């Protein structure tokens, strides 16, 4: 399997970055919209895509462990390299904890979740209140909910910084950081 080099990223790194990255941006937007406006018809879609992306996230984490982190494309300042590293860590940990907290909230909350029609955790309807869910563990569901909400905002801030960084490299420093993530072989 091709490893990343300074001159060129492997297809695995590039595909996983864009599949996971663009899906997460969509899930953050859909999640915020549906929770704020109580659009319950979007919940199944949000949960299904969230569970699917978790599989890609798991492969990505294993790939990072095997392959290591990318070497900076150019010799930019040390404090910028440290900031980029911190943001990459926040993003990768966030991509793991968002689906995990979502599954905890929905699973322990008795709402259940799955991948479209395929049920992974069944809902637990409350016999006393038709149409309502009976939590399996309200405390765990509450922790999952809090984590999901707070981490969602942390992710949005980290992604904004990350995109600003990518644009700064591309437009101000005029280096090849972004082009490398788009598949180009760069001069080293
Ligand atoms: C339009 C949006 C995005 C752009 C333009 C972008 C751009 C980039 C670029 C240019 C790099 C390479 C940095 C380097 O060479 O050191 C990178 C790496 C990375 N990006 Fe993004 N990114 C975007 C969205 C995201 C999102 C939404 C996430 C996470 C949820 C993310 C997570 C990461 C991570 C963890 C790395 C480190 C390398 C890796 O694990 O693949 N990115 N990004
Ligand atoms: C990377 C994956 C995911 C991202 C980025 C994401 C993001 C979000 C965001 C930003 C919100 C709005 C939070 C709020 O204001 O309350 C939200 C809500 C929600 N998410 Fe996710 N989510 C992901 C995966 C999941 C998964 C896997 C599940 C369940 C299996 C899930 C279940 C929910 C539910 C039920 C809500 C609504 C909570 C409420 O009504 O307050 N999410 N999500």
Automatic annotation (TrEMBL):
Tree of life domain: Bacteria
- The residues covered by the Cytochrome b561 bacterial/Ni-hydrogenase domain are 9-183
Membrane-spanning ranges? 12-34, 40-62, 82-104, 150-171
Gene3D superfamilies attached to this UniProt entry: Transmembrane di-heme cytochromes, Chain C (1.20.950.20)
Q: Which UniProt keywords apply?
A: Cell membrane, Electron transport, Heme, Iron, Membrane, Metal-binding, Transmembrane, Transmembrane helix, Transport
Q: Which residues form the signal peptide?
A: none
Chief subcellular site?
A: membrane
Q: Where is the protein found, in the record's own terms?
A: Cell membrane
Q: Which InterPro entries match?
A: Cyt_b561_bac/Ni-Hgenase, Cytochrome_b561_oxidase, Di-haem_cyt_TM
UniProt cross-references to SUPFAM superfamilies, sorted A to Z: Transmembrane di-heme cytochromes (SSF81342)
Query: Which cofactors go with this protein?
Result: heme b
Per the record, membrane topology reads: Multi-pass membrane protein
**Similarity section:** Belongs to the cytochrome b561 family.
Protein name from the UniProt record:
Cytochrome b
Please report the organism this UniProt entry assigns to the protein. Answer: Kordiimonas pumila
Recite the lineage of the species.
Bacteria, Pseudomonadati, Pseudomonadota, Alphaproteobacteria, Kordiimonadales
